[in-house]
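Task: complex structure prediction.
Instruction: return structure tokens for all chains below.
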Amino acid sequence: MGKIFMKGNEAIAEAAIRAGLNFYAGYPITPATEILEYLARHLPVRGGVFVQAASEIEAINMVYGAAAGGARAMTSSSGPGMSLKMECISYIALAELPCVIVDIMRGGPGLGDIQPAQSDYFQIVKGGGHGDYRLIVLAPSTVQEAYDLTFESFLLADRWRIPVIILGDGALGQVKEGVDLYDKAPVLFEKPWALSGAKGRKPNKIVPFNLEALELEKMNLALQNKYRAIEAQEVRFENVNINSKTKLIVVAYGTCGRIAKSIIKMAVEKGLDIGLIRLISLWPFPHNEIRYLARNFPSTKFLVVEMSAGQMVEDVRLSVSDDTRVSFFGRMGGVVPAPEEILREIERKGLC
Amino acid sequence: MKKGRIAIDAEVCKGCDFCIAFCPKKLIKKGPHPNGCGFCPAVFSDTEEKCNACKICGIVCPDAAIEVFQIGDCENCDDCKCEKEGDNG
Amino acid sequence: MLKEKKILSRPEILTGAFTFCAGCNHGTINKLIAESIESLGLREKVIAVIGVGCCSTMYNFWDTDAIVVPHGRAQAVATGLKRVHPDKIVFTYQGDGDLAGIGMHEAIHTPNRGENITTFFINNGIYGMTGGQGAPTTLLGAKTTTTPLGRVASEGVPIRMCELLETLSAPVFIQRVALFSPAETMKARKAIEKALKCQVEGRGFSFVEFLSNCPTNWKMTPLESLEYVRKMSDYFPLKVFREPQ
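Output:
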């Protein structure tokens, strides 16, 4: 089968179905609504349950229930909806249940607008909900990658018993590209901890709650051990054009990662040595890789490009540990920067 | 006339007095000694064998602290769940 | 030949002492639900969805599959569970703040979809776990820590959930019961069994509201609190609002 021309949102929905999605609950919100609508058409006739919830909060709580029952469960939204879901995400994290949540980011804060942005980084990667928890966060930059990462997210969620966020933006959600919908059997996991009626076994209890502080601390320590293991095994990034001649490394993810690739092409024509580290996993964050680049290329500068006031840049500054080497370029409010304007800024500031 | 008796788990009873208030034959009263939780549990006292196993005490008990036994002539039924003869359980 | 036959004892589903206050009807209701489950042979099929409040500690002694969920969201979680396990018996157990306060959204939309689950709504007109604040079902004139002068209508008129749900066509069984006497307690037991049977038969959404007590926060003895519940039933009538067809 050749490639299918589809929207990022549609590719995400299709990938979920092929990964064995059993249950989806969602609520309309621009620019993510096509995920809901695609699954309304396709999921029930392909073996899954679809529910349009009456609120974003209801949707994530339905996912909590379905995931507790051992199902592969997903919801999708944009920034304002993710804000609503945070309490339940905190519960799901402590309950150590797998699920996939898609955030197609838009301009904020508040009602904001419907254009692409990356201003949910703090909320999603640092944890917008209460308590000490982490989520695996994956940031695709093309429709094909959105398909690939969504398909894989269910496996990661099940393997690690953790919610996985697919963090896209309005550009990715809406753009149409050719997608190879390769046929791959999903890897399924046994879930002996799931709630399914205690027949022939002791009852399972999913209780993200313990009034004995020492016991709750133990539960937290178990989570922290898991997070250390994930940090050691699930870091993902892509290096482009990084070598001893690289004067400037752009650090970006998602749509900005894609824009950065255009910058590199333009830079080559101008004789400028610019490379890119495109982050694919935002948590676990590639701290070690960035630290390694900073140490091994001691005169190289870093430019973080985000569609925000500067959120991921803080993590880059932490990894480089030298503020004089890290610059930031950002557009806010749903504005997508052109590669030319970023290149002009690089030249103006003499970063390269 | 069916006869009965009850057994109150003194460590589970919280001394709420529901069984005392609702026993139609007033066979239950508040005991004098606190249990391990500090509640004074209810005590069953039926010297005249008036209890007829109506189960009202067990029905109203919020802690499922009461077992109710029916004492009667054996009917030799297939469904026998009877305790051994004369055994006080 | 005299023999003894045990005719009433603690249901096996309930392991260990209850975490509730002396005289709290949560204990009675837990016991009645457990009895119904056992008499209907449903123990291995049950998944309990437990809300936030004094009831949250139920998981300590309730011996079936169970989950504790965010405040107000039990019916959404139950929907997810039931949709992926349609042959299992899923019930929610929620207090008045959980269902009629923060959970009011789910309390309307879950029944409105006719989800084949059962909701047990424990209405004692107060927020017990947090120390006695007013609830959406607190009677007018009642003094709580947030209505120290007695509740007035501008703080909200107490909401009658059964009557509210009666306006929806989807729910198949709605009944309000209480536990202030042995006779009323037996009616409650029958209502629980009827609700669970609705679910077993795949009929749709069933709802039992229990007028319940809170001796601790009402500052009454357990027996006094039962009398207050009797008074509550003047405002919240005890009846069947919808019979399963």
